[in-house]
Amino acid sequence: MSDASKFDREFLRAALSLAGKGDVDHFLYISDVPIPPEDLRRQLAKRKLVYAVTSPRIAEELLATKQKALVIPAYDYSRTERVKVALVSALSQGAFKEGDLVLCMTGKLGRSPDTLMQMRIGGSLDDRLTIEGVKLGDEFNSQVVDALIQLALQVGQEGFEGHPIGTIITIGDHTSVMEKSRQMTINPFQGLSEAERNVLDPKIREAIKNFSVLDGSFVIREDGVVLAAGRYLSASDEMVKIPLGLGARHAAAASITSTTKCIALVVSQTSGAVRLFKGGNIVLELHQTARRT
Ligand SMILES: Nc1ncnc2c1ncn2[C@@H]1O[C@H](COP(=O)(O)OP(=O)(O)OP(=O)(O)O)[C@@H](O)[C@H]1O
Questions:
Q1: Which residue in 7, 97, 176, 265 is a FRET match for 259, CA 20 to 30 A apart?
Q2: Measuring from each residue's beta carbon to the nearest atom of ligand 1, which residues come in under 6 Å?
């Protein structure tokens, strides 16, 4: 065993020992390589362990052995972004709750975890994000929101046929959103039955990815049914403030979420970053380190 991997293992054992302490509620391990069973033996951390993996197959294998696992997209984000994506996914699935202390271990995609981070749910992850903001309220279906965040990350990362694209996806309060918007292009979802246009269906998510080239916004009902694509959001709220450098698309998302009860995901064409707006504010911001071209 090389010195580096020997140290990796010592680092992991030290993390497991910290995770076993009474103050820690969960140990979020963000890696596709499960911890060797011998390292988990007699560790209190074992029952607190939640894996975040990039492959559904690995997640299924872990679940089959009664371990907890969630799937995050396989993109090359920074370590902090990987922690954010995994925490959002865990929160939206109800695996963590307000006030929980989560010890997060992460690293670069495809490498051994090299970073340990402690996060208090409800505390601040960085200057402009509180994980608390990500708790969206009971009217939202967490599976729908989680699926759409993952989809937005894919759109930001992959673009369309190698070209960067941006989009807005509103979720919830559809009656008000439809009232405060107008059709800019054809609505490709018209004519399909509700069962045929729910974002919980991977085929529909693939279609949304492709239709993201259309100008305008997608309007999604709380339960995941796609009501429209290509909507121009005409709500305007002079009071909303968006960070410098963000333009009309982000301003539209801020305004529609401040004047209705919907939330809105925005993929920036310029940077590939994904931002979640609620009540006119950005409550989650996910930046990507590398874009696929
Ligand atoms: N009110 C709106 N409703 C729906 N889409 C809009 C609205 N305003 C702008 N857009 C879309 O956003 C696109 C980009 O606008 P702009 O460059 O000003 O936005 P931005 O906030 O800087 O976002 P990006 O980072 O994606 O460039 C427009 O071409 C249009 O398709």
A1: 97
A2: 166, 168, 215-217, 232-233, 246-250, 252, 268-270
Q: How far is the CA of 247 from the centre of ligand 1 (A)?
A: 6
Question: Which residue in 156, 129, 134, 130 sits closest to 145, CA to CA?
Answer: 134
pLDDT of residue 26: 97
Question: Does the domain at residues 142-286 carry the CATH identifier 3.40.190.10?
Answer: no
Domain boundaries, the chain: 6-121, 142-286
Contacts (Cβ under 8 Å, ≥6 apart) of 41: none
Looking at the CA of residue 248, tell me the nearest atom of ligand 1: 18
Predicted TM-score (pTM) of the model is 0.78
> What single DSSP character describes residue 225?
B
Cα 246 to ligand 1 centroid, rounded to whole Å: 9
Tell me, in angstroms, the distance from the centre of ligand 1 to residue 193's CA.
30
Residue 153, classed as helix, strand or coil, is: helix
Residue ranges of the alpha helices (H) in 129-190?
142-158, 174-179
* Per-residue pLDDT reduced to its tens digit, 177-191: 999 999 998 889 988
**Nearest atom of ligand 1 to the alpha carbon of 215:** 31
User: pLDDT tens digits, residue range 14-65?
Assistant: 999 999 999 999 999 999 999 999 999 989 999 999 999 988 899 999 999 9
